[in-house]
Amino acid sequence: MRILFIGDIIGKPGRDVVVAELPRLRETLSLDFVIANGENLAHGFGITRATANDIFAVGVDCMTTGNHWADQKEILGFIDSDDRILRPRNYPAGTPGKGANLYQTRDGHRILVVNVMGRIFMDPLDDPFAGVEAELNACPLGDAADAVVVDIHAEASSEKMAMGHFCDGRASLVVGTHTHTPTADAQIFPSGTAYQTDAGACADYDSVIGMDKFEPVQRFVKKMSGARFTPATGPATLCGVFVETNARGLAERVEPVRVGGRLKQSVPVL
Q1: Residue 144's domain is classified under what CATH number?
Q2: First and final CA of the chain: distance in angstroms?
């Protein structure tokens, strides 16, 4: 299988670059499944029905999220009825939505997507490792699933990397989100799990992690807030991770993807 994971889509510039570039990427990379982290879709904070529909319409099959998933309260009215949208699995019992789902590709392959949130420098949620363990045991790679992707939405690189090793041999891809900066460590671990510490963001990189740079800089300098953060509005770079799996669902190839905007371009060649 060929899978593309797209990092956090930030506001309209992020949506615009995904709308412009994803249809071509689906074709040129012969993608079987596309996952995107959408927690920043609407003005940089949360998801609305309209912004989700924009992304699904151009080829995203599943949307993961993170700590901003419920910032736009309208999502509470549709997340339970739309299996394409996940929220972190380790939120308390009774929280709307779910944190994992088994999807079927257009060719009939089964792909398990698991979404968890880290706890270091983040909200003190339930143990993400226990949550992932439960999902991997319930839907094992090579048995109930042809591929498994884990999105760990976390601040600390150490926690993300530990999750990658924890899943090695049991997942096709473990990828980090949340920090909005693509890391240069795409690799395949010894037992066959592809890994990258952070997929980056779909955002204008003449910014502070996707936000207009004026207000964040002022907060660091003056130690007080002056206005709301708003997404930077320049040309955005689509950032993500491409992985190709073998018949056992383990990774044979992993490469970063960067298209458009300011960052150095990187598109796998088949």
Answers
A1: 3.60.21.10
A2: 13
Q: What share of the chain is helix, strand, coil (3-state, %, to 5)?
A: 25, 25, 50
Q: Provide the number of structural domains found in the chain.
A: 1
Range of the domain at 71: 2-203+235-259
How many whole angstroms separate alpha carbon 191 and alpha carbon 168? 6
Q: Average pLDDT for residues 15-27, to the nearest whole number?
A: 98
Question: Helix 11-28 to helix 49-56 angle, to the nearest 10 degrees?
Answer: 20
Spatial separation of the C-alpha atoms in residues 51 and 36, rounded to whole Å: 13
pLDDT tens sequence across 163-218:
999 999 999 999 999 999 999 999 999 999 999 999 999 999 999 999 999 999 99
Which positions are annotated as active-site residues?
68
Q: Which of 201, 268, 257, 197 is nearest to 15 (CA)?
A: 201
The 8-class DSSP code of residue 18 comes to H
0.85 exceeded by pTM: yes
Alpha helices by DSSP H, listed for the chain, are 11-28, 49-56, 128-138, 157-166, 214-222
Q: What CA–CA distance (Å, rounded) separates 264 from 254?
A: 17
* Rounded Cα–Cα distance for residues 244 and 246 (Å): 7
